[in-house]
Amino acid sequence: MRALLARFDALLAPGGAVSIGTPDAERLDLRDPEDVIHELHAPFHRRHILSAAALAHAGERLGWSVLQRFDTMYNNTCSR
Questions:
Q1: 35 and 29 in contact (C-beta within 8 Å)?
Q2: In this prediction, what percent of the chain has a pLDDT beyond 70?
């Protein structure tokens, strides 16, 4: 994850923003995997699923800050 965020940071224009969509690990209750099967489906199942706090912390290490956060279904996209 660090390498990916560092790559985004290298590509980011000054004053730019990065939009990241991922399931929130803190919201996934694996006691009933059928209930969260879609959130765990590709492309996420081959990667680590981070909590919102862990993702924010990883960005903060690069000097980023969370500008806005949307808690939506896994298949929604952010639009402005």
A1: yes
A2: 74
